[in-house]
């Protein structure tokens, strides 16, 4: 197997970003839950690889299909009517995992890892959403297709980066 510089770079940045997120969550005395689709548990695995994660990480679920999004997370048909790769689905996943796990901080990903298109979207296209006590925000991502595993790492990194941004805003708002 050929060494993939991009994958290594994203995974290194992902670990560093997860550590920063953990420090923010600890300072806020908050816990994180994640609902992942296209990232396949990579965010939860990265977070729980940090020693002491039980002090700030609560729940991680991978709901890859429409069925699991409905049955595990409790999404309603109206919340996924625009497709599994949609802003509404990302927001619903995020808000449902927060409610199910009784946390005030949550993150979700839904998109296309590749290698082929899905729902008309190219690989490395995704919606991410973050929920904090300030509300829920979402972001659309599109990036060059670098292969399935590299795409997953890129999307996971972008999701944790958005979470870090929102936690920093919340910390500034809460503590002045």
Report mean pLDDT, rounded to a whole number.
96
Largest sheet: 5 strands, mixed
Strand content: 15-25%
Q: Shape, please?
A: globular
Instruction: Kindly name the structural category.
Output: alpha/beta
Indicate the low-confidence ranges by residue numbers.
Answer: none
Terminal Cα span: 50 Å
Please state the CA-atom Rg, rounded to the nearest Å.
15 Å
Percentage of residues assigned to helices: 40-55%
The tally of beta strands, per DSSP, is 5
- In DSSP terms (H or I, runs of 4 or more residues), the helix count works out at 5
What spatial order of strands do you see in the largest sheet?
2-1-3-4-5
**What is the H/E string?**
HEHEHHEEEH
Short description:
This protein has 176 residues and is of the alpha/beta class.
Which descriptors would you attach to this protein?
single chain; 176 residues; alpha/beta; 5-stranded mixed β-sheet; 5 helices; 20% strand
What is the topology?
Blueprint: H1 5-28, E1 32-36, H2 42-48, E2 57-62, H3 66-71, H4 87-101, E3 105-112, E4 125-132, E5 135-142, H5 148-175
Helix pairs in contact: 1-5
Molecular structure report:
With 176 residues, the chain is an alpha/beta fold. Helices cover 45% and strands 20% of the residues. It has a five-stranded mixed sheet with strand order 2-1-3-4-5, sandwiched between helices. The N and C termini lie far apart (50 Å). The mean pLDDT is 96.
